[in-house]
Amino acid sequence: MSTLTLHRARTVFPVSAPPIADGAVAVQDGRIVAVGTHDDLTVALADAVTHRYEWDGVLSPGLVNAHTHLQYTDMAAVGRGTYPSFETWALAFEKSYRTPHDWAASAAEGARLSIEAGTTSVAEIVTDPEAGAAVHDAGLHGVVFWEVFGWKRAAWADRGPSTVLAQLAALPTPPATGLSPHALYSLDTDVFRSLQQLAEQHGVRLHIHAAESASEDEFARFGTGALADRWRGLGHSDLQLLSGNGSGLGVVQYLDEVGVLTPHSHLAHGIYVDADDRALLRARGVSVALCPRSNSVIGLDAPPVAAYLRERNPLAVGTDSLSSSPSLRVLDDVAELHRLARDQGYADTDLHARLLHAATAGGARALGLHHGGSPTGTLTVGARADLAIFDVAAPAPGDALAELVESSPTALATVVGGSPLWTAEPANGAVR
Question: Which helix (H) or strand (E) holds 20?
């Protein structure tokens, strides 16, 4: 017979239901089979429980990092800097990127740090094939996206699709794989359209950097501005948006025009958007992974998190990489989003719950992990048993939720598919 494991915590946050004081989650064969109070589950399951964990903290769904580049973990020196603009950060990034790196080891270290922060699923963007196995080898879930960068229409028409499909096929599975058209300024318009067609034909998701740079909108509309000048200086005046003097459309409208805004895609950053852009994203069913700490390091504006929340855009949370962020801890970005939302005037009492949702169920939705045979992101019967336990001291559920969202507590354990992938020292974690 398969084992039945009971995880008990001071507070359980199902996300799909109200918090449960002195709660428990029962797991069997990698799936959640019951969620409720510890007393109720103890009675209901009687002697069927074969293993018990009693956690001195709170239990939530495993966190979903909806935008990261784990391979850049050993470029943390770049992320510790401060930059006046996206373009100046890009120069520092490229200088470091061109030096020798062990991308496999760097990505593996990033996966380790993610797991120890309570992350169970990632939207990992891979630029160099040596980094492609890290998520698979670490046992994380999510989607590994092969980054498509620098293709122009002539080269793409000659060999692009076959090259990219071979690169995609080389990524080990599980987890799922997908394609990441880097950004509108690094790919020709025809390439974007083709990538959407390839994604649809092969049943994979897309993940795109969008509205991150302050000058990206001018690049898209007119083919001018600081970003456009930089790309011309690098010898890319023949990009369709530059040679054609732009598209006449803003970033989000341009991406919609080329067909990549679908329920099977999600965007990273989404800073420089207006109400019409946000409405279009909602209409297309596109989630946005907010990465506020990365934006701050690079010298960008804060994302309009309060507007996204008020207008009920589907949101997720990402850390980006250590080349632009102080850590790979999703809860650090959650705490920053809380601060920004309040500063931007969001006064509703649901803020803590909305942000925990973004870091769990919202991330699962962005990656397409919220349905199908192995749903994750919430603690519901039948879902995959991806759990995270955090060192939260507040006894009352409401206070515990506030502490979890605002103070970025450390993780005590990370459980993926019912199996503890990592636990802190016993004194800080589980009692079996």
Answer: strand 20-28
